[in-house]
Design brief:
Layout lengths: L6 E5 L3 H4 L2 H13 L3 E4 L9 H7 L1 H18 L2 E4 L2 H16 L1 H11 L12 E3 H16 L10 E3 L3 H4 L2 H4 L9 H7 L21 H4 L1 H17 L4 E4 L2 H18 L7 E3 H8 L18 H4 L1
Parallel strand pairs: 1-2, 1-3, 3-4, 5-6, 6-7
Length: 296
């Protein structure tokens, strides 16, 4: 399917609809503003989580991911996601099944019991890649209504967006550029900070297995951003959003300190710059408070 398709199957995942519907709202509103439609993937399940599920049992993880891909294939649409975990799971499953015919055959034997078949006709794109490569930086810049000239943004990519770089196809995982480019067209400044490429602390089941260690990693990352003069953190992952936003309330209970450092999903921040209200992008439903200099 053509990469410039103007309609995508929007794979919501678990956290966006259950915890942060503002991510979905801001994503859909921005895409619609640029004449890109999204359609619901009826019957889609959890992606499922690649770092934990896929590591323990690939031959259960893969058919579940393949079923989701097959739903999009039946819709004759490419997929767009707003979570790095979903991105990693679906894109990697797509890659494995296309590159390994025997694995595809075994997976389709399982899918056939549920009336599904993986054909390899869909692609999986992340929302920030669609904005960067399909909508385009120039078009976004032309539509900025509230420039973020006074805002210093700490960009956070998250692990699954960057690696494995051969599958993701965004260039070097050590020198990423997509988020920086998107933030710069809003007028925001992008200070470098020490732990920019560090995990949010939740990955690999760490948030569940060792919550204190998970929060300590998050604390280290936030301190690094704050000390570099950043006003907020902007990222492309629903799971990172849960960790970095809700995790600050959990950190207050664990360590007795509440940073109240603003956390925004990429389309929430861009939505504000494009003229959407705090309520339209769901920022009134978060743990952290968004300062007036960002809301304007």
């Amino acid at each position: 399917m053509a990469e410039d398709s103007k309609t995508y199957a929007y794979f919501l995942g678990c956290i966006t609809p259950n915890r942060y519907p503002g991510i979905e709202a801001s994503t859909k509103k921005i895409l619609k503003g640029f004449e890109i439609e999204t359609k619901e993937m009826v019957g889609a399940s959890c992606c499922p989580a690649p770092g934990v599920f896929g590591s323990f049992d690939m031959h259960t993880w893969l058919p579940i991911a393949a079923r989701n891909l097959a739903i999009a294939e039946e819709m004759d649409l490419d997929i767009v996601v707003s979570c790095n975990g979903c991105y990693g799971s679906l894109q990697e499953a797509n890659h494995l099944l296309i590159e390994h015919p025997k694995l595809r055959e075994k997976t389709n034997e399982i899918l056939s019991k549920f009336g599904k078949e993986f054909k390899g006709t869909t692609t999986v794109s992340h929302i920030i890649v669609v904005l960067h490569d399909v909508v385009g930086l120039d078009r976004i810049k032309e539509n900025i209504k509230k420039p973020m000239n006074d805002v210093n943004v700490a960009v956070h990519y998250g692990c699954h967006f960057l690696k494995p770089r051969e599958v993701r196809g965004h260039g070097s995982s050590e020198t990423p550029y997509i988020l920086e480019d998107l933030m710069k067209v809003t007028g925001a400044k992008i200070p470098e900070y020490k732990d920019k490429l560090m995990c949010c602390g939740a990955g690999g089941g760490n948030r569940t297995a060792d919550s204190v260690q998970s929060l300590e990693w998050m604390r280290q990352k936030l301190v690094s951003a704050i000390e570099s003069g950043c006003d907020c953190m902007v990222h492309p992952c629903a799971f990172c959003h849960l960790q970095l936003d809700r995790g600050q309330a959990e950190m207050e209970k664990a360590f007795g300190v509440f940073f109240n450092f603003p956390i925004l999903f990429a389309t929430q921040f861009m939505g504000l710059a494009l003229g959407l209200s705090q309520e339209e992008v769901g920022l009134d439903k978060q743990t952290t408070t968004i300062p007036e200099k960002i809301l304007k």
